[in-house]
């Protein structure tokens, strides 16, 4: 028996069980292993930060996020310097699964905009330090489609009728891979189908500057989405010319102009928990307050810089450094991130053995695309490639797995001084994309190559050995 599709063609009536299976197969074809890695790697905002995002501040006429959420305005642009906290803010407002304060308030305001219509949300985080797919348009559209179709799988037959009918009539497997052109059409068609069902859609896309292709490619997709009614997009990026030209007339905010209260709160909270700082405040209350002010002033709104500097000063405070020592420590930390990374590596370089080991970790992670499992890196860190050959064939789990990860964590902390870290899901990542960019600089690459040649380190042999160990 047949009914009629919107385009006049007959629509095949599929038994419920088979229909559900085809829907699940199609959704599964959009999924990929790394989906969600970037979001989980982004640190949770420090408590009581970013609350200004939902304040109705008259001074922010062009950057009132609360007002934008409830209005018919289509796009909001979050921009700022590298390390200013753009991704953390995006997660704060759009991590609806965690039901955090920011996401709750965001949803509250969006519901005012959607009214009686069904509200759909979806989000994606580009990741330059991740694997190749995490920097691609392909991943962005697959992820957005996956989220939208999980909520409304019944529209799949309308957005991909040829795929649907082939799967039902001829049992053709649905497995992809989908081309970018197919995916764009699927996304636009899915959006239209949802809108036809009296819905409204808000999409969050973080890190447009971390997209591997031309900015104009991803901007083209954004323009097509904005060409549809009742679609909102909140996007973030560095202030590149291409994005400035595209978004300069849209509501926007610049992170470094708004994060000073958050930085003050972050610094004071960490210092107040430190016994050395408490002793300093009792002896020299004026200087203790001055130290906080100096950090805020020197940070220029870059949260990442503050995080690194606070850790350095806390080490000094714990050791009861004199005021002169603290001043020298702060003065020696450059205000620009690249120069700060220079300083960190210079300090590591004072210990040749540790510096060579740090270079091995950096090289391995670069070869792995910027992100990997802690267990894999721990196997690649074994002293001889023959280790995996001698390794008995049995699962690594429980206490032994935890011990291996903890050993790696301690080595990374002592050798890489925070530039590499083990995050959620026990994955090793660069502290920030700026670290990866820094390590790709020709001067740094040459220095690393020189050190690794000294010890005849072959990253590919170590990785082959690690993958062999993972199969056992």
TrEMBL record:
SUPFAM superfamilies attached to this UniProt entry: P-loop containing nucleoside triphosphate hydrolases (SSF52540)
Q: Which residues form the DUF7791 domain?
A: 351-470
Q: Which keywords label this protein?
A: Repeat
Q: Which InterPro entries match?
A: DUF7791 (IPR056693), NPHP3-like_N (IPR056884), P-loop_NTPase (IPR027417)
Keyword Repeat appears in the UniProt entry: yes
Residue ranges occupied by any Nephrocystin 3-like N-terminal domain in the UniProt entry: 49-238
Query: In the UniProt record, does the keyword Repeat occur?
Result: yes
Q: Which Pfam families match?
A: DUF7791, NPHP3_N
CDD domains hit by this protein: ABC_ATPase
Protein name in UniProt: NACHT domain-containing protein
In its UniProt entry, the species of origin is given as: Immersiella caudata
């Amino acid at each position: 028996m047949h009914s009629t599709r919107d385009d006049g063609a007959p629509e095949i009536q599929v038994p419920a069980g088979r229909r559900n299976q085809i829907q699940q197969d199609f959704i599964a074809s959009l999924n990929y292993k790394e989906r969600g890695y970037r979001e989980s790697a982004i640190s949770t905002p420090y408590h009581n930060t970013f609350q200004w995002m939902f304040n109705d501040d008259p001074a922010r006429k062009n950057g009132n996020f609360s007002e934008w959420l409830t209005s018919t305005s289509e796009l909001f642009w979050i921009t700022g310097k590298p390390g200013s906290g753009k991704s953390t803010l995006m997660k704060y407002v759009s991590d609806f699964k965690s039901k955090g304060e920011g996401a709750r308030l965001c949803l509250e305001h969006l519901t005012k905009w959607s009214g009686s219509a069904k509200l759909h949300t979806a989000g994606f985080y580009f990741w330059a330090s991740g694997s190749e797919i995490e920097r691609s348009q392909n991943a962005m559209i697959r992820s957005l489609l996956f989220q939208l179709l999980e909520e409304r799988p019944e529209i799949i037959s309308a957005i991909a009728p040829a795929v649907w009918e082939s799967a039902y009539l001829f049992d053709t497997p649905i497995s992809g891979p989908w081309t970018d052109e197919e995916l764009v059409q699927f996304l636009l068609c899915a959006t239209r189908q949802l809108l036809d069902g009296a819905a409204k859609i808000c999409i969050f896309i973080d890190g447009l500057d971390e997209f591997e292709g031309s900015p104009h490619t991803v901007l083209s997709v954004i323009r097509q989405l904005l060409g549809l009614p009742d679609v909102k997009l909140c996007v973030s990026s560095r202030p590149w010319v291409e994005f400035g030209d595209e978004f300069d007339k849209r509501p926007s905010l610049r992170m470094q102009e708004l994060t000073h209260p958050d930085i003050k709160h972050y610094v004071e909270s960490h210092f107040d928990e430190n016994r050395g700082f408490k002793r300093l405040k009792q002896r020299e209350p004026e200087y203790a307050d001055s130290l906080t002010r100096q950090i805020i002033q020197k940070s220029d709104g870059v949260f990442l810089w503050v995080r690194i500097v606070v850790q350095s000063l806390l080490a000094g405070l714990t050791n009861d450094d004199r005021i002169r020592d603290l001043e020298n420590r702060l003065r020696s930390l450059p205000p620009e991130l690249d120069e700060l990374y220079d300083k960190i590596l210079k300090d590591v370089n004072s210990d040749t053995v540790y510096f060579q080991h740090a270079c091995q970790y950096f090289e391995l992670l670069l070869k792995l695309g910027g992100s990997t499992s802690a267990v894999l890196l721990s196997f690649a860190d074994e002293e001889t490639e023959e280790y995996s050959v001698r390794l008995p064939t049995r699962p690594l789990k429980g206490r032994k797995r935890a011990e291996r990860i903890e050993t790696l964590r301690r080595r990374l902390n002592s050798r890489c001084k925070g530039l590499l870290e083990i995050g959620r899901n026990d994955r090793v990542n660069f502290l920030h994309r700026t670290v990866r960019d820094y390590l790709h600089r020709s001067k740094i690459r040459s220095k690393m190559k020189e050190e690794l040649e000294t010890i005849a380190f072959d990253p590919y042999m170590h990785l082959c050995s690690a993958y062999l160990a993972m199969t056992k």
